Amino acid sequence: MGGEYASGLFRTTFTAVPARGSVAAAKLVVLTAATTVLVTLGSAIAFAIAPGGPVRPGWHLGR
């Protein structure tokens, strides 16, 4: 969103959709969805390549 202000594109956005709340909500939905996908993929890859899985036999979490 900061890039829109730096480039001046926010004027076009708010001319097309004057309701700023709707624009902010839409941007939040897109950001949340993209972040969820990336975090899920990153976690799946990390668990897939972790040797022995997330916890190795013999390791104790918090005594």
Question: How is this structure best described in words?
Answer:
The chain crosses the membrane at residues 28-50. This protein is 68% helix and 0% strand. With 63 residues, the protein is mainly α. It has one domain (19-63). It is rod-shaped, with a radius of gyration of 21 Å.
Mean pLDDT: 82
Question: How far apart are the termini?
Answer: 45 Å
Oligomer: single chain
Number of helical stretches of at least 4 residues:
3
Describe the sheet with the most strands. none
In one word, what is the shape? rod-shaped
Q: Give me the secondary-structure category.
A: mainly alpha
Counting structural domains, the number is: 1
Tell me what portion of residues adopts beta-strand conformation: under 5%
| H/E topology pattern | HHH
- Share in helix: 55-70%
Total number of beta strands? 0
* Rg computed from alpha carbons, rounded to a whole number of angstroms: 21 Å
The parts where pLDDT drops under 50 for at least 5 residues are none
How would you briefly describe this protein structure?
The chain is an all-alpha fold and 63 residues long. It is built from three helices and no strands.
